From TrEMBL:
Keywords: WD repeat. It comes from Gossypium tomentosum. GO terms for biological process: proteasome-mediated ubiquitin-dependent protein catabolic process. The keyword Disulfide bond does not apply. GO terms for cellular component: Cul4-RING E3 ubiquitin ligase complex. Gene3D superfamilies: YVTN repeat-like/Quinoprotein amine dehydrogenase (2.130.10.10). SUPFAM superfamilies: WD40 repeat-like. This is Uncharacterized protein. WD repeats lie at residues 100-141, 142-174.
Length: 201
């Protein structure tokens, strides 16, 4: 691999390691088998770099993002080791721009909910997006920050809380009740001297 790794994550049980590179490659390594490459994914419609990846809780699917409003989802349990977008396997595109009539923006961060039914994404248009995978549509758009939303995550297993971090130097906490008011967080964590680039829970 000649390009630099930009994002990485372990699976919840630590058995898999996912790395996204500034080329178009995403590699899934099997930690229990001596870090052998279990799947090599060639990303589709990549703009700049793979900005984030997220494994579903059952480790069957992987979503990946770039500087585009389209999030791609891949079946990582298939027998094919080389997953070339729409050549050897279908990389379904989930359109997060539907609410804005095709407005173009980039997605910096994406995470599955713990039940695998929703995705939350943070974007370059200062917003948080929630996508309902069962309904296959965008369910919510929140004008969350005053700058790029670099990182988002579901806070716990209930799926009722979401954390976000932004280049406006703020971390915010969002509850399901906030989703009605949309732009009013349940809490704000201040005092960071620079933009917040990562949050985990």
């Amino acid at each position: 691999m000649t390009s630099r790794a930009y994002v990485s994550q372990f699976s919840a049980d630590g058995s898999l390691f996912v790395a996204g590179f500034q080329g178009s490659d995403i590699r899934i390594y099997n930690v229990d088998r001596g870090w052998k490459v279990q799947k090599n994914i060639l990303a589709k419609s990549l703009l700049w770099t793979v900005t984030d990846t997220s494994l579903s809780p059952d480790q069957r699917h992987l979503v990946y993002t770039s500087m585009s409003p389209i999030v791609h989802i891949v079946n990582v349990r298939s027998a094919t080791r080389e997953s070339l977008a729409n050549i050897t396997e279908v990389h379904e595109g989930l359109d997060f721009s539907a609410a804005d009539g095709g407005y173009s923006f980039g997605i910096f961060s994406v995470k599955f909910s713990t039940d695998g039914r929703e995705l939350v994404a943070g974007s370059s248009d200062d917003s948080i997006y929630i996508y309902d995978l069962e309904a296959n549509k965008l369910s919510l758009l929140i004008a969350a920050h005053l700058a790029d939303v670099n990182t988002v995550t579901f806070a716990d297993e209930s799926g009722n809380l979401i954390y976000s971090g932004s280049d406006d130097n703020l971390c915010k906490v969002w509850g399901r009740r906030c989703f009605v008011a949309k732009d009013k967080p349940a809490g704000v964590l201040m005092g960071h001297l620079e933009g917040v680039t990562f949050i985990d829970s």
